[in-house]
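Tip: read the tokens left to right.
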């Protein structure tokens, strides 16, 4: 028993010695742990093995583990050039994910930007659609455009006429401006009054308007009343003022054609129904104006009549017949006048004709109009700084005021004027498209040809695209009859715009809101 106990104690000491030797000689690895676990769990006794053998086996295992680690380190440190680094497991997918993150972020940002722009565009479209559907949009488009053109016209008349007015013996640079301001005031009052009239009122006075316009135009041939200015016998002298009745005849004719064509809708199946009284009334107006040697105004009346007949549903076969007659009449009047032929030649040749260098030549006015536009550049020489208005450009404050606008306000100024006329024309087109009354559609189309069409002709003359025919720029050029008649025509169109469904209710609501605001302000002042 004593020897067995001693042997067991020796065996335990040897095991402890072996364990301490292995842990001191090499780090613990998975294989060592496996060996130790196997040694622990094994039921076989290792008493026959000597401590020296166990120590050697442990040292050999440690040496193999160290060799394996050093080989791995050497291989990682000395890879051939161009070879890819062997990444640990999961590294490639992690790198790809990192690379995909900026792309995903950029995609998300672009999607967010596109969505923001899309929402902004949708809101803008909704606002425009809501504004367009408002019953007073047409009314204010026309009103604001006309007020802007009238204000610009007063400023430019003062600038363009200041030298001519002072040099003409008036002793003041404001002589033409003061008259124009008075005419504009009268026209604005008439515009406001006409805008308050109902559609039934215009129907009742249509015949009176055309008859009165024809009588006034015929008075230019009456001795003592008719006045001739620069070759045109197209004026009536009343006191210290002169009236050009053809300007008011154009307004009356457009209103009358609207009324007649609305009454004849669907009935113009025969020659008599189609022609009478439309064609005789139109030819009478054109004949009286051209008889006074004013072919330019006659052309505007013809164009206005053609537009009214087209919109009013005039039968096409008779429409073409009437158009042919009017075109033949224009050719006859042009060929029968040497002055008109010279103007057309001046438009086609300009500086190419050496005779145009003569200060009294036909191309003098056209060429100096182009000089004025060209010298303005992009932004102009400055308001009031025009050089052509110093008696170089004839009619600088009247028919050729657009050239002075180009010189003083530049290309930008002229484009702004054209844009305002375009907005005005757009407002008139809206009246035509949104009205259910044929009279409103036809008359407004005639006023469109009268105002916007005449503006286009005037700008074409100044820029050299058309021969000089002596037509003012509506609302802008100097001339009492022109601005009063134009503002009266706009007043009629405004009254038509008020017939749009919901317009009267919107105007009443705005009046109530204005009264409430004024009442609140009045109470605050009392306090």
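Filled-in amino acids:
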């Amino acid at each position: 028993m004593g020897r067995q106990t001693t042997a067991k104690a020796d065996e335990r000491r040897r095991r402890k010695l072996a364990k301490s030797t292995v842990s001191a000689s090499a780090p613990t690895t998975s294989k060592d742990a496996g060996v130790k676990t196997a040694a622990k769990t094994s039921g076989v006794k290792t008493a026959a093995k000597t401590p020296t053998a166990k120590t050697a086996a442990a040292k050999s295992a440690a040496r193999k583990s160290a060799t394996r680690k050093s080989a791995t380190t050497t291989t990682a440190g000395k890879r051939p050039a161009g070879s890819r680094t062997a990444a640990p497991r999961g590294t490639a997918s992690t790198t790809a994910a990192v690379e995909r993150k900026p792309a995903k972020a950029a995609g998300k940002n672009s999607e967010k930007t596109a969505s923001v722009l899309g929402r902004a565009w949708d809101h803008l479209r909704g606002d425009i659609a809501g504004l367009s559907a408002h019953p007073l949009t047409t009314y204010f488009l026309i009103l604001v455009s006309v007020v802007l053109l009238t204000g610009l016209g007063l400023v430019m008349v003062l600038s363009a006429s200041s030298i001519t007015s002072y040099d003409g013996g008036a002793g003041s640079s404001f002589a033409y401006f003061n008259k124009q301001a008075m005419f504009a005031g009268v026209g604005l009052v008439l515009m406001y009054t006409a805008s308050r009239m109902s559609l039934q009122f215009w129907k009742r006075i249509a015949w009176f308007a055309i008859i009165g316009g024809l009588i006034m135009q015929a008075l230019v041939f009456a001795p003592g009343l008719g006045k001739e200015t620069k070759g045109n016998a197209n004026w009536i002298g009343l006191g210290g003022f002169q009236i050009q009745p053809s300007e008011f005849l154009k307004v009356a004719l457009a209103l009358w054609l609207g009324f007649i064509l609305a009454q004849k809708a669907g009935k113009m199946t025969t020659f008599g129904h189609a022609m009478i009284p439309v064609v005789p009334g139109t030819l009478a107006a054109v004949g009286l104006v051209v008889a006074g040697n004013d072919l330019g105004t006659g052309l505007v009346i013809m164009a206005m009549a053609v537009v009214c007949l087209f919109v009013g549903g005039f039968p096409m076969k008779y429409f073409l017949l009437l158009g042919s007659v009017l075109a033949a009449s224009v050719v006859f009047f042009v060929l029968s006048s040497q002055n008109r032929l010279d103007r057309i030649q001046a438009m086609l040749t300009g500086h190419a004709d050496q005779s145009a260098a003569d200060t009294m030549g036909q191309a003098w006015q056209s060429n100096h109009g182009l000089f004025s536009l060209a010298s303005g550049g992009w932004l102009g020489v400055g308001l009031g700084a025009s050089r052509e208005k110093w008696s170089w450009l004839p009619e600088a404050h009247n028919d050729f005021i657009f050239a002075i606008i180009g010189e003083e306000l530049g290309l930008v100024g002229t484009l702004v004027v054209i844009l305002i006329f375009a907005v005005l024309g757009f407002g008139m087109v809206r009246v035509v498209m949104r009205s259910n009354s044929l009279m409103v559609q036809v008359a407004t189309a005639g006023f469109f040809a009268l105002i916007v069409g005449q503006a286009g002709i005037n700008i074409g003359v100044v820029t050299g695209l058309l021969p000089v025919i002596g037509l003012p720029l509506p609302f802008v050029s100097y001339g009492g009859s022109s601005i009063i008649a134009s503002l009266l025509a706009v007043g009629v169109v405004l009254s038509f715009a008020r017939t749009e469904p919901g317009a009267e209710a919107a105007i009443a609501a705005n009046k109530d809101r204005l009264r409430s605001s004024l009442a609140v302000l009045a109470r605050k002042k009392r306090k």
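The chain has 18 helices and three strands. The mean pLDDT is 80.
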